[in-house]
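Reading is simple: each integer encodes one residue's backbone shape. An example follows:

___
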Amino acid sequence: MDFIEGAALRYDYTSYDDETNEKKTMQALKGVDISIKKGEFVALLGHNGSGKSTLAKLLNGINMLSGGTLYIKGLDASDENNIWDIRQSVGMVFQNPDNQIIASIVEEDVAFGPENLGIAPADIVKNVDMALKAVRMEKYRLSSPSCLSGGQKQRIAIAGILAMKPECIVLDEATAMLDPLGRQDIMNTVMRLNREDGITVVLITHYMEEAALADRVIVINDGKTADEGKPSEVFAKVEKMRSLRLDVPQITELSYLVNKEIKAFPADIMTIDDFVSAALKIGFKEGFSYKKEKKQGNENTENIIEVKDLTHIYAAGSAFESTALKNVSLEIKKGDFVGLIGHTGSGKSTLIQHFNALEKADEGKVFFKGEDINADKSKLKSIRQKIGLVFQYPEHQIFGTTIFEEVAFGPSNCGLSDDEIKRRVKKALSLVGIDESMCERSPFDLSGGQKRRIAIAGVLAMEPEVLVLDEPMAGLDPRGRDEILSNIKKMHDELGITIVLVSHSMEAIAEIADSIIVMSEGSVEMYDTCDNVFSQAERLRAIGLDVPCMTQLFSRLRSEGLEVPENIYSVKEGADILVSALRV
């Protein structure tokens, strides 16, 4: 028998109609068959709402079956007497680390699981040391989790599972909030545990490059199994994956597009090394060169936000004292589209919360249109109306009973007329791609991506001059991510508002931002155009970041003699260049 073996798995959940209070039963899983061998590494893919997380919660007994059969390590998962043993064997890391962290000190939280398993104290110490080192959080072992960033909390949650050394680890979007080096570290750790210790891994992810590392990929769609096979087999079906609201690794998409024009080029490549080898095998046309048009920058010279010598210390004077910002100074011009990147815990979220005085600096000042935002507290309400902030988990901002009520909340509190409120709600919903006919629906009935758009609409309805978004795409499926990015670009182009976008996706930032602020250890490491920032790959990697996948590829091709710039960010542009450059 396989380590995990399930047949015709069904899971029903109950909801209630808001108006009639009638009970409704919905099916999250509709007959899934799944088998995973001991020591196998399986990636579980699917769009938001497809049933992935529901299936994952069945694997360690958080959810109980509605139908079908499921055996974990030979134990019947429908028998409640087996749940304790199953949970000892299968550790789960959730999307949101706040759902998993319970202790007030990091090392105590990581030790909580091993202690409850009755592991010897000396071994607990070794396990905690191993786990913290694996997630690069050793220096925070005596910190309070409440003082950590979202990404740092996620690392602690992962460490808590690693410290228990389970036979199987299920990771539900566990790397969504991590910086590129953090994601790489976690994946290296997971692969080492899988290859060297024989731990079975089930990875739920929207990062297709992570899924490509697995032995096998299972695709879930609408509560059913839609595809299954080796990563190369599944990702070769580019059009099918797109129809399932999913993606393929960028290198695979590029090889697919090149193959459509040059049949001699393989269509299913998954790594940069293999792509370069395939390109060199065909060869490049003599004398080929490509020059990229320079992106036109913002010509406005008026500063809308100015930060001077900003320092912020959390829990000053206590044992948990932590300096989040160190003498930060920067200027953002009116109409700018600025990307804000940095390693986990670099100070990004702390910085943007100073823009509208949600946090107050220990030293330094923040100016909005030349005015110190903290000089007159009576003006703070007006400042916060003009500088809108969308948090890391935008769906947590939602509380209205209908979509209209949610989006109208801000304008309603400004004393505006009913007609003006309706106008603003209609306009905001249009900008985020939500149809006006949905106004009377509950926002809590929407998918994760739709909830985020509603949260953004609620901020847009205030008609801010500056929109700050903190990781709005984290945890979204590829289509949801692309829709959010498209909506953000639309807001910038149509409204002319200043946008600051915080993201760990180098590809998203490269394609959409005009300039980039790079933060490291609470300071501004770089602030320049996308091209100038991403031309410094080694410097970025040294602080836990990376450059976009296409930039990495074209840098390699340049080193092989192809006369192209390195600042290529989009797959389409890369395909156009290579179709012209390769010998046919």
Notes: The domain at 335-360+376-534 is CATH 3.40.50.300 (Rossmann fold).
